[in-house]
Specification:
The protein is mainly beta. The protein folds into five domains: 77 residues, Immunoglobulin-like (Sandwich); 82 residues, Immunoglobulin-like, CATH 2.60.40.1080; 80 residues, Sandwich (Immunoglobulin-like), CATH 2.60.40; 82 residues, Immunoglobulin-like (Sandwich); 92 residues, Sandwich (Immunoglobulin-like). It is built from one helix and 44 strands. The strands form 14 sheets. Strands 39, 40, 41, 43 and 44 form a five-stranded antiparallel β-sheet that branches. The chain has a four-stranded mixed β-sheet with strand order 2-9-8-5, with no helix packed on it. It is flat. The N and C termini lie far apart (163 Å).
């Protein structure tokens, strides 16, 4: 009995092995083909390598993969490179051409942007050791985790990946905030690192081009940059104290004729200098002018006077008039014309110290109504001195700020009133009073009207001249 059981076991074992060897081996498909994530957010106009997002088994030939976009208005694919075109969504499909196996990736395109609240930031190295730029960062459709930080000049300021800037040296650098894997989206802030000491000093020029007359005193002012920076003790010096002295508050005094250089120096060595000239105050050159070179009788105008050296004054000049019945001139160069007079007068300006140093100007003394011009326009005919038609009489003003025209009347040769407009019209410079009337065979007509400017009044009678 035991032999039968043993034989049966051996026979069954052999039979099982024979049956198993006749069956083919089952191959397990372990080929991997998918995107690392199901959804990806990209910025506008961003290029993206799709192969980097694929998980691919080594058995798949990468050249055998084809990519396509469901919305080419949002994103297009060229070989393996995706480029975003507009805000929106698209599905990217990767397909293995040999097997038909596919993988999909949802693309979301947003108009992302990075900016800072201010373009520049100035820090004092003596007072500030670090700055958190995240407080100044403005993100649109981005998260702070998407940002990488870069310093253009790490020797001046370094930045860590939390956006904290460490101040190291004086100078200027740019700090960039960029999107990971997207060079097209970035922002920057310019960092100026300074210390509290003065960087520059400028002595502000004295009026009259730093020319002085013996005995003149003046206190020089300074422009310091940066404003409010520490200068330490300032030291003032004169290159020639016998010509120009200076005290330690910047007060100078002209001592004798000549030239000198005034210098001020800060504690850190920053300095500024200015050249000065000291003269006797005698006038070497004079020029007088007046524009326009005419004065309404009864009014005043001050001459424009140029003197060299500029430190000299008009008190060193003598003003005279060639005809005091037309106009007089005072020692400030103010010309006063005589009311009711007309003509031309010559005004002289002569140095009291040297009569050969002088200049002159011719001035016309005119009526206020010198500035009036008359124009006529006729739509009709003139025959044997008689006028028929529609006529426009124009009183035009130039070179004067205003004038009043009134009591306008038209008569024929016999004195018969043909037209009148007695209302006062105020006209401005370059403006006109216009009168429209119709004449019917009017023989040698004339007009009368009144002109008024301030207290100047003139009555006019003018024959209508159409030549």
């Amino acid at each position: 009995m035991k032999l039968k059981i043993t034989f049966f076991i051996i026979f069954s074992f052999l039979l099982f092995n024979c049956s198993s060897s006749d069956k083919p081996e089952i191959e397990v498909n372990t080929v991997a083909f998918s995107f690392r994530v199901q959804e990806k957010q990209l910025a506008l106009y961003q290029d993206f390598d799709l192969l980097k997002e694929l998980v691919v088994n080594e058995k798949i030939d990468l050249k055998n993969i084809e990519f396509s976009s469901s919305n080419t208005n949002v994103a297009i694919v060229n070989k393996q490179v995706l480029r975003t075109k507009s805000v929106g969504q698209a599905t990217i499909t990767a397909k293995v051409l040999s097997t038909g196996k596919t993988a999909t990736l949802k693309i979301i395109v947003k108009d992302s942007n990075i900016s800072f609240e201010n373009y520049t930031l100035t820090v004092d190295i003596d007072k500030t050791k670090s700055v958190d730029l995240k407080k100044h960062l403005v993100l649109k459709d981005l998260k702070i985790e998407d940002i990488v930080w870069i310093s253009q000049t790490p020797e001046i300021a370094q930045v860590d990946q939390q956006g904290v800037v460490s101040i190291l040296e004086k100078g200027r650098t740019l700090i960039f905030a960029k999107v990971k894997d997207n060079e097209s989206v970035w922002g920057s802030m310019e960092i100026f690192v300074k210390d509290s000491s003065v960087e520059s000093i400028n002595i502000l020029s004295k009026p009259q081009d730093n020319e002085f007359v013996i005995g003149n005193k003046y206190k020089y002012q300074l422009r310091i940059w940066p404003e409010g920076s520490a200068t330490g003790k300032l030291v003032w010096e004169s290159s020639d104290p016998s010509v120009m002295s200076v005290d330690q508050d910047g007060n100078v005094e002209a001592k004798s004729e000549g030239s000198a250089t005034i210098t001020v120096k800060a504690a850190n060595g920053v300095s500024s200098s200015i050249g000065v000239m000291v003269g006797s105050g005698k006038i070497r050159y004079v020029a007088v002018s007046l524009y326009p070179d005419r004065i309404i009788n009864g009014e005043k105008k001050e001459l424009s006077v140029t003197i060299l050296p500029s430190s000299a004054t008009k008190s060193k000049l003598r003003f005279t008039s060639s005809d005091t019945s037309l106009a007089t001139v005072d020692q400030d160069g103010v010309v006063s014309s005589v009311k009711g007079k007309r003509g031309r007068v010559t005004i002289w300006a002569t140095s009291k110290d040297d009569s050969t140093v002088r200049d002159m100007i011719d001035i016309d003394i005119v009526s206020a109504f010198y500035h009036v011009r008359i124009y006529t326009e006729l739509n009709g005919k003139v025959q044997a001195g008689s006028i028929t038609g529609d006529l426009q009489y124009i009183v035009n003003l130039y070179g004067l700020e205003y004038m009043e025209v009134s009591e306008f009347k038209v008569f024929d040769q016999s004195g018969t009133l043909l037209y009148q407009d007695t209302k006062a019209q105020n006209i401005r410079e370059a403006d006109s009073s216009r009168y429209y009337f119709t004449l019917e065979n009017a023989h040698k007509p004339y007009v009368t009207y009144q002109l008024k400017y301030k207290d100047h009044i003139e009555y006019r009678k003018e024959y209508i001249n159409l030549r």
